[in-house]
UniProtKB/TrEMBL annotation:
<dbReference type="InterPro" id="IPR036346">
    <property type="entry name" value="GTP-bd_prot_GTP1/OBG_C_sf"/>
</dbReference>
<dbReference type="Pfam" id="PF01018">
    <property type="entry name" value="GTP1_OBG"/>
</dbReference>
<dbReference type="InterPro" id="IPR036726">
    <property type="entry name" value="GTP1_OBG_dom_sf"/>
</dbReference>
<comment type="subunit">
    <text>Monomer.</text>
</comment>
<keyword id="KW-0378">Hydrolase</keyword>
<dbReference type="Pfam" id="PF09269">
    <property type="entry name" value="DUF1967"/>
</dbReference>
<dbReference type="Pfam" id="PF01926">
    <property type="entry name" value="MMR_HSR1"/>
</dbReference>
<feature type="binding site">
    <location>
        <begin position="190"/>
        <end position="194"/>
    </location>
    <ligand>
        <name>GTP</name>
    </ligand>
</feature>
<dbReference type="InterPro" id="IPR006169">
    <property type="entry name" value="GTP1_OBG_dom"/>
</dbReference>
<keyword id="KW-0547">Nucleotide-binding</keyword>
<keyword id="KW-0479">Metal-binding</keyword>
<dbReference type="InterPro" id="IPR006073">
    <property type="entry name" value="GTP-bd"/>
</dbReference>
<feature type="binding site">
    <location>
        <begin position="212"/>
        <end position="215"/>
    </location>
    <ligand>
        <name>GTP</name>
    </ligand>
</feature>
<dbReference type="InterPro" id="IPR006074">
    <property type="entry name" value="GTP1-OBG_CS"/>
</dbReference>
<feature type="domain" description="OCT">
    <location>
        <begin position="341"/>
        <end position="427"/>
    </location>
</feature>
<keyword id="KW-0963">Cytoplasm</keyword>
<feature type="binding site">
    <location>
        <begin position="282"/>
        <end position="285"/>
    </location>
    <ligand>
        <name>GTP</name>
    </ligand>
</feature>
Length: 427
């Protein structure tokens, strides 16, 4: 099954908690704190691999989780860093953030890697909190939770040339003749239900990849005929070969077909419609009068297109078409991508304690505090230690949470809820 789009949930590993211990040896009294730091959580990394051709496996496995970092231990021992989770995808896959819609990375080369979800930072052990006045700290910092995000994977085929045109104009036949591909061929609409790729090796020139893009009819940019699902596969192409049924064997006007397909390309993406395009008038072997082809060729040339008269069945005109295709590919070189990538910072994912936005909702004697910083703060606190809880309370005070609660009329013994934590309020 060919699957070219999938939505998956990523959970990077949590950072390990810092250790809380003291050095105790027979002849070393008051050895001091020696709790080690927690290990960093594992990242989630995507890697392009030529051994994969589809995103099918992500339809069945949607949740992916990296390994957590281990907690720090005594003897100043740092916890083990969580193993990174390497997710292999086909070459040509782009990764989008579901919430923002922006493109995170474009994996267009074999072996290319990109870190998509950051593992949490490990907490500091109590050995880090010893000072001249606090020589025996009995608290350690909790590890930071790993990044969670939902991403959308889209596979965009890496083809140099895209074959476009209405169904049954001979795209599959042409592909089978000029390459070793074996697409399904028959005389009915939508024979091709998945994009087909083939490699053209012609004479002594460098080979190039050509793709037969199915499903292009009127309304394709809106999903008619599955067109919007397959249009993405011509986004990377440098050159478009527009195939027309010069014989009108389907009872359609080839010139109107040409205009309709180009309108769909423009509606889908203006940059795509501006790709270099040449026209191939196919099925001329079915015409008794060549004058009809000449008139159609002249009309298309008036519009500024190079036109080639061919027959995929007999081989007529294919040498001229391929020769010009190779020349154009050399002239065009690299093309501007039609999708924009916004690079992310490579910094370690850490909680932002400077963020000051939060909301408070009152329900009778229950006050529910919500804010992006809360979950990150809670995972960095060891609630079994009074000093660590004191740190937690100072952060809430500094952020103005307590002041806002008092402004809303909170009384002693009213309940405050922060994420999964509830406590009674005392001034």
């Amino acid at each position: 099954m060919f699957v070219d789009k999938a939505e998956i949930i990523l959970k990077a590993g949590n950072g390990g908690h810092g250790g809380m211990s003291f050095r105790r040896e027979k002849y070393v009294p008051n050895g001091g704190p020696d709790g080690g730091n927690g290990g960093h959580g594992g990242n989630i990394v995507f890697m392009a691999d030529n051994g994969f051709r589809t995103l099918m496996e992500f339809k069945y496995k949607r949740k992916h989780k990296a390994e957590n970092g281990e907690n720090g231990t005594g003897g100043r021992s740092t916890g083990k860093t969580g193993e990174d989770l390497i997710i292999k995808v086909p070459v040509g896959t782009i990764v989008k953030d579901k919430d923002t819609g922006r493109i995170i990375c474009d994996l267009s080369e074999h072996g290319q890697k990109y870190r998509v979800a950051e593992g949490g930072r490990g907490g500091r052990g109590n050995m880090n909190f010893a000072t001249a006045t606090r020589q025996a700290p009995r608290f350690a910092q909790g590890g930071v939770k790993g990044q969670e995000r939902t991403v959308i994977l889209e596979l965009k085929l890496l083809a140099d040339v895209g074959l476009i045109g209405f169904p049954n104009v001979g795209k599959s036949t042409l592909l089978s003749v000029i390459t070793k591909a074996k697409p399904k061929i028959a005389n009915y609409h939508f024979t091709t239900i998945v994009p087909n790729l083939g490699v053209v090796e012609w004479r002594n020139f460098d080979p190039f990849v050509i793709a037969d893009i199915p499903g292009l009819i009127e309304g394709a940019h809106e999903g008619t005929g599955l067109g919007d699902q397959f249009l993405r596969h011509v986004e990377r192409t440098k050159l478009l070969i527009h195939l027309l049924d010069a014989a009108g064997s389907e009872g359609r006007d080839p010139l109107e077909d040409f205009k309709a397909i180009n309108l769909e390309l423009e509606k889908y993406n203006e940059k795509l419609a501006q790709r270099v395009q040449i026209v191939a008038l196919n099925k001329v072997d079915l015409l008794a009068d060549a004058s009809e082809t000449a008139e159609l060729k002249a009309e298309l040339e008036k519009l500024g297109y190079e036109v080639f008269v061919i027959s995929a069945v007999t081989g007529q005109g294919l040498n001229e078409l391929l020769s010009r295709t190779i020349t154009l590919l050399d002239e065009i070189g690299e093309v501007e991508p039609i999708f924009d990538i916004e690079p992310e910072t490579e910094s370690v994912y850490t909680p932002d304690f400077m963020e000051k936005q939060f909301t408070v909702e009152k329900r009778d004697h229950l006050y529910i505090v919500k804010g992006d910083f809360l979950e990150r703060l809670i995972t960095s606190v060891n609630f079994e230690d009074l000093d660590s809880v004191g740190f937690f309370q100072r952060v809430l005070k500094d952020k103005g949470v307590f002041a806002e609660l008092e402004k809303m009329g909170i009384q002693d013994e009213d309940v405050v809820q922060l994420e999964d934590i509830e406590f009674e309020y005392f001034k």
